[in-house]
Amino acid sequence: PSAAVQGRRGIVWRECGDGLECGTLSVPVDWARPRGLRTQIDLARMPARDPYRGLGALVVNTGAPSTIQDVRARPDTVSELTRWFDVVLVEPRGIGDRGSRAMVRCSVPPPDPLLLQLAPGRASWRSYARQNAAYGKSCRIAAGPAYGGLTARQTAHDLDALRAALGERRLRYFGNGYGAVYGLAYLELFPRRVERMYLEGVPDLGEPSLERRATARARAAERRLGHFRDWCRSRLGCPLDDDAPAVIDDLYERVPLPAGAGRTLDARGVAAAVYAGLEPGRWPELARALSQAEEGDAAALAAMTDVPPQAGPATVTRAAACRDFGPAVPTHTELVALEERLRAPAPRVGWLSARHEAAHCLGLPGPAQPPGIRLPGLVRLPGAASSAGPMRLPGALQSSESGGLPGVVPSAAPEHRPDAVQSSGPGDLPGVVPSPGTSRLPGSGQASGAPRRAEGASVLVGVGRLDIGAVRVPGAAVLRHGDGPGAYLLQGEAKLRAACLRTRVHDYLVNGVRPRASCSGELVADP
């Protein structure tokens, strides 16, 4: 609609470009004091293509610094979901659309963790801590009284207010990365108000020990290096003729490496460059840079450690995350000792994870309350790329290559809306039929052949082979896939609409169909 539309419970939607309708929601700074100071959160809506056949609202947070700006830049990440839903993009507190009054604009940018990885000395450690503290102080000043409400649990209350404002009895939610953390917080606070959730790349931030976090990330980095080696071996034309780890070992033996314009690269610089290049999207770049360094020119490898310039104003994202889950930061002496301990399980590059983990919250205040989402019964299992492994509740449903699904979901699942749109057969919802390797969730009573309502697992968790870590949540079905964090969104951006992962996520969100088998990786391009 061209005119502003008054939404339920006061949301006013107005056209705001890029096919979006924007609005705001007023919420208390502290939900324990609902009559106190208020703040606002930014919203945007992609209306369902056919409002007469839609299933209602699906709330989305992509985990980007701004979900709305992310979708403006990459609409194909979520636009396919409008075949069935009004896609409602929600920002956490302090984050907003371009030009929004809801955005907390910190006047001092946060320092890049690369700076701490490249400079091991005590003076650099102190300088980094001062820069990070200045960033945090600027965020507190910019946010004013609203700063105290910048937590995941307050955001979970905001999600519930949004659910009510949209007229939904239960929440449908898609959360990626840190957006999945808000989903976990909602599950903790409002477990019976969940219709369905898809959570992807769920970080395991409940671990208070920095050493255990760093050890998990260190071992994951070494495994990613192994995946990079296997990827390169399987690609015709990969410039690394030899085993990639062997090339790295050879470069360590030859440091300092000439990197052009009088620059050299030491062993720490080599490790930092490889560490930065282990993101799957950078594998082709890393392969070329290692090959050129082996031939005597490490300029491209050194460039992988260049700190990118700050794009736009600094956001409150890091400060808020440290308020939620920041671990106790060690002293410089303790960190150096931890690095040495990490060289045993992660000798090539993973040992840098200690500085990566410490860098985010060094110099910032710790959590406002004990960190972690307190979902009862969480246990760690092997999986993803985390040494501690992702976390799972006993009885959770897990997809596997064999398709075996032992156990059942907990019986205390939320009830579902009696007025929800149901399909009368596999073709009733356009484009969605149960795909091979899926099964209906148990406990649905309806005619044979019709997609069943999700009355068992109300959560589906995507766990990628290249994820650093992940959590399993109570009653969740688990969909394993061969890509890394943000795979669903990246596949949409690449227009891989028929990808296994996306098809099965849609089957789940629309029809309540749980996947019974894993999906292979589909994202990494040839070098």
Automatic annotation (TrEMBL):
Residues 390-454 are annotated as: Disordered. This is Uncharacterized protein. The lineage of its organism: Bacteria, Bacillati, Actinomycetota, Actinomycetes, Streptosporangiales.
